[in-house]
Amino acid sequence: MTAEGLSSGQMSRASGLSAKALRIYHASGLLVPAHVDEATGYRSYGQDQVGRGRTIALLRRLDLPLDRVAVVVDAAPDDARDLLLRWWDERRTAAGEGRAAVEAHLATAAPVRDDVRRRAVPARKVAMLTSEPDQASLVPTFTADVLTVRAHLAAQGARFGDEYWVVYRELLGPGVAGRVETCVPYEGTVDPAGDVVLRAEPAGHEVYLPVTARECAFPQIVAVHASTVAAARASGVAEPVRREIYPVPWRDDDPDAAVAEVAVRW
């Protein structure tokens, strides 16, 4: 970062948007640089634009059309959630759910991996929302929840980064809804409000596997979940609770880059 702000490369790394995406969103007016050098054409961005960039990257993961991304990004938190989930319902109705049987079959054939990693984890404070999506609506639901929780934390002056978690309290699948918690770790003093709940997670241990963008989809990710559950049971965890950890902005330019972790914590 310079006195003039973030370069395009720095903005790309901070937001998870590729250089190509930044050019497109500049041209469309969705993410206009704070400054463009008239002589060189070099673009620079303000630090306060990083959050908008990250939100755009999160929404584009769902293939949300650009015109709808603009509406959701600029909407109030409650309106943004409703707009996003309404669009997903429209898309699912139009496309149908004919893939469900094939995906379920592929999931049952997933092999258990033997390269699970282990680590100690510190105590964390998290703000969370609980939802009950099925497999088809999982990603748009927890995306909407992340945006809602981050808006709540920002309004109260809490400190938080890119990271968020999706904790699976119940099994879910095609056409089968299950309870999940979308959690954003934070620092500072925050009051709960509405459906946003605060929780202190104690220090403990975790088995986990990194996941690439290519693997981070159903049914490919099923094998990763099965592997961490098996490793947790081998460590004496009677009832493993699965989670997906998204520690960095989602990247749209490299399907083989690690974008998430599947873990079991105890």
Short description:
By secondary structure, the protein is an alpha+beta fold.
How are the elements arranged and paired?
Elements: E1 6-7, H1 8-15, H2 19-28, E2 35-36, E3 43-45, H3 50-60, H4 66-74, H5 77-95, H6 100-108, E4 117-121, E5 124-131, H7 138-155, E6 164-168, E7 180-186, E8 197-201, E9 204-212, H8 220-234, E10 242-246, E11 258-265
Helix pairs in contact: 3-4, 4-5, 5-7
Descriptive overview:
It is built from eight helices and eleven strands. The longest helix has 19 residues, at 77-95. Helices cover 37% and strands 22% of the residues. α3 (50-60) packs across α4 (66-74). An eight-stranded antiparallel β-sheet has the order 4-9-11-10-6-7-5-8. It is globular. The N and C termini lie far apart (39 Å). With 266 residues, the chain is α+β, with helices and mostly antiparallel strands.
Shape descriptor? globular
Average pLDDT reading: 86
Major β-sheet annotation: 8 strands, antiparallel
Low-confidence stretches: 97-109
Continuous helix count: 8
- The helix/strand series, from N terminus to C terminus, equals EHHEEHHHHEEHEEEEHEE
Q: Could you tell me the radius of gyration in angstroms?
A: 19 Å
Pick out its properties.
266 residues, alpha+beta, 8 helices, globular
